[in-house]
Amino acid sequence: MTLSKVKTFSRLILYVAEPLNTAYRPIARSLPAALKSQVVRALAVSTFRWTGKVPGHYHHYIDRERTNRGDLAIAKAIPELIAEAAQFEIGEVIELRWRELTTDFISTIDPDRDVFVLGAGGYFMFKTAQDLNPDVIADLQILNSVPCPMILFGPGTNLFVGDKADASVEPNAASRAALNRLAHKVRGGFVRDRVSE
Questions:
Q1: What pLDDT score does 40 carry?
Q2: What is the pLDDT of residue 108?
């Protein structure tokens, strides 16, 4: 099946960093943990006023999780952009968070009526310069069993502020094999950075 021959998909399955349906969830803290965060915040404000330095761990300053606005904006935009580019209608949109795909869910996928999108963000996490994180390799193995067409919508290498990517570094054999299986699986799309190419 090619995407161009299908006018309506029953489901668009988005596999993204931050699904919209789980965004901005309040962080559940026990009463002692909540009190500790309040004390740490108060001490941090006092320290900042006296020294100009901000002490303490960011965990004490956040009340909600899964709030990456960039990842959320991408998840929100993908269905419309794909439908417009491929000129087909989408029925239901299902969002799954990276590394939460199960074989039970895969068994519900209709190979002729569903399309699977690996969404943008830093999906490819490396443990070292050459070794993909074992969780990513395991996830790529599960992705290989998705029976419907798969599109890449800008996934890339996960880098932190200050990290420098080196596109000349070759992944080790296991990482390269996992990435090659994904490359052969997808029907189209793009990655977001030169390292991921």
A1: 83
A2: 95
Q: Distance between CA atoms of 130 and 173, rounded to whole angstroms?
A: 9
Closest to 120 (Cα-Cα) out of 12, 192, 195: 192
- Axis-axis angle for helices 134-143, 173-185 (nearest 10): 30
Query: Residue 125 is encoded by which pair of tokens?
Result: 């996490």
CA neighbours closer than 13 Å in the CB half-sphere of residue 1: 15
Q: How far is Cα 151 from Cα 166, in angstroms, rounded to an integer?
A: 25
Q: How confident is the model at residue 160 (pLDDT cuts 50, 70, 90)?
A: low
Q: pLDDT band at 188, cuts 50/70/90? A: confident
